[in-house]
Amino acid sequence: MKTSSKRSCSPQSPDPSSGADDERAVAGGVPAAVGLVDAHTHVFPPEMILHREAYLERDARFGSLYRSPKAAMVSADDLVGRMDENGVDLCVMVGFPFADLGLCRLVNDHIVEAVGRFPGRLAGLACVAIEAPGAAAELDRCLDAGLRGCGELAPDPHEMHPGKQRGRGGLASIACSLRERGLPLLVHASEPFGHQYPGKGRFTPEACFALAQAHPGLTVIFAHLGGGLFLYEAMPEVRRTLADVFYDTAAVPYLYDPGVYEACLATAGSQKLIFGSDYPLLAPGRYREGLSRLDPDARAAMQSGNARRVFKI
Ligand SMILES: [Zn+2]
User: Fold this and answer.
1) 8 CA to middle of ligand 1, Å?
2) Distance 106 CA to ligand 1 centre (A)
3) Which among 58, 84, 136, 303 is least buried, having the fewest CB atoms inside 10 angstroms?
4) What secondary structure, in 3-state letters, does 228-253 show?
5) Distance 197 CA to ligand 1 centre (A)
6) How many domains, the chain?
């Protein structure tokens, strides 16, 4: 679908094309070990990996996460090369939320190109600098080229100010583009307390809830179990507001005990959890201990069906 950045977009119009019931039936029949989708993997173009030092000073967030040579960076080709041994059928690649839209564009180009070379094995999301002029146009360019959503974005909580959400530009325009196409926004979420680690941000459950509230009908995946937002799905009125919200498992073994998946299933339900490893930070095998405790139907939904439905892949 071709769209224009001048279009009108009402936050009150939910996506009519989720097709959730059909896909749920399919997901229920998928054995857990078959068709694993890893919905949260990070890739960079080879040039950026080779010359990472040159980019450390150009972006404070990138510098804080990738200054250590131990912080692994992989290209799309590196990722594909490890998928079979990791038991993964399909990876959803994300780039990095650079503050410079030009750097986002470099990564987006790499992802678009790789998806074209590995259809059926790779899908990708577009990353944009939320506040940059041209962010919505860059997102539209990538979605027109076949990418399946936007992320992983790391918004500042001030983005959730009600005035900003009503206006044009910024996150409001990004949300508008995605809602029109029925594609998801992946947001980096963090726990409001607990241990500190590189990348721990301030977009905590309150900001996540405000984002969902500001954009009804927009499919949002909060990474890292939404910083714990899933717990509040046990409150009926909160659950209604979070109707289009999903949670991915990226980095969970670093953050929680293995029993957290059962807690998440008890409150949010198996249809809202999406497996993502945060590769190359963690390989999929690191999630085995927690996931093996779940029943096969819940695992099949988490490890394949939900992602295929949400990303339309
Ligand atoms: Zn993240």
Assistant:
1) 30
2) 20
3) 84
4) HHHHHHHCHHHHHHCCCEEEECCCHH
5) 12
6) 1
Q: Is 4 within the bounds of a domain? A: no
CA of residue 223 to ligand 1 center, whole Å: 6
Question: How far apart, in whole angstroms, are the C-alpha atoms of residue 72 and residue 43?
Answer: 10
Q: How far is the CA of 295 from the centre of ligand 1 (A)?
A: 27
Q: Could you tell me if residue 3 is inside a domain?
A: no
Residue 266: give its domain's CATH number: 3.20.20.140
Q: Ligand 1 centre from 199 Cα, in Å?
A: 7
Print the domain residue range for 257: 23-311
19 and 305 Cβ atoms separated by less than 8 Å: no
Contact of 40 with 214, CB cutoff 8 Å: no
The answer to whether residue 183 sits within a structural domain is yes
Taking a C-beta distance cutoff of 8 angstroms, is the pair 91, 83 a contact?
yes
Residue 304, domain member (yes or no): yes
